[in-house]
Amino acid sequence: MARQVAVITGASGGIGADVARVMAKAGHDLALVARSEAPMQALADEITADGRPRPLVLALDLGVAGAASKLQAALGEAQAEVQILVNNAGFGLLGEVAKLDQAEQLAIIDLNVRALTEMTLTFLPQITRLKGRILNVASIAAFMPGPGMAVYYASKAYVLSFSQSLGEELRGSGVSVSALCPGPVLTGFQARAKQANSRLLDVYKPVPSLSVAQQGYDGLMRGSRVIVPGWMNKLTVWSVAFTPKSLLLRVTGRLQATRRTSV
Fold it and tell me: Residue 12 and residue 39: Cα distance in Å, rounded?
């Protein structure tokens, strides 16, 4: 029989690595996917040392078109089928659209939107046959516009909408689709986004990624459509529906602005 695995993208660190730890502890066989191989090999060593099966480690840049097909071929060679798909890979950039690099902004769409969709479409037949699950990592950013991180916020709105729509289409098939929507998390995301000095982090204190990973996994296994970890994030999502868009735009823009530095 083929090896049935949970594929986790962006597994070289942060939420992805912690989802791998949580799922390995729960007894899942894993396939780790990211650009950087060394951190994933170290994570595989850690999981193996804990008495679990060694995960498959597959170094791929999912931002490149056709990466999902390459991953499918590699899994086929390893005689592995995808039962659970965790689309976690993604990034954002802090700054105004007109001032940020065009190629970098398009790369956000390539990874956060196109790659996630390509991965889902490629492996959905296997997941459906195995009555598996899909966890797409979105953000509380998905619920609102985001001046100061406009492309990132828009990409996560897509992830949430796509996840909810796909989940409804698959209702009754035995497959569940969940969207994990955390607030700021203690990962390397802030460094890549150049967000470390953002006022947003004064209001939303980053939480440990392991806690987010555990809540995401628990919600996935319950079949929850949307998973929002933390009371502050839940309150934010609830309040957005009652906040005028004009006010929401101004508040979000100010939160994304960098703190003033003393001279």
Answer: 5
Query: How many residues appear in the chain?
Result: 263
Residue 253 in tokens:
């823009």
pLDDT tens digit string along 66-99?
999 999 999 999 999 999 999 999 999 999 999 9
Q: 164 pLDDT exceeds 60? A: yes
238: CB partners within 8 A, 6+ apart: none
Q: Which residues contact 41 (CB under 8 A, 6 or more apart)?
A: 57
Domain parsing of the chain, residue ranges: 3-256
Rounded to 5 degrees, φ, ψ at 113 are -110, -65
- Name the residue among 200, 123, 116, 125 with its Cα closest to residue 155: 116
End-to-end Cα spacing for the chain: 65
Q: How confident is the model at residue 263, as a pLDDT?
A: 24
Pairwise CA distance, residues 199 & 233, whole Å: 16
By the 10 Å C-beta count (0-12 exposed, 13-18 middle, 19+ buried), 39 is classed as: middle
Catalytic positions = 152
Q: Which helix (H) or strand (E) holds 30?
A: strand 30-34
Q: Which residue has better confidence, 133 or 202? A: 133
Residue 102 CA to residue 33 CA, distance in Å, equals 26
Domain 3-256, architecture per CATH: 3-Layer(aba) Sandwich (3.40)
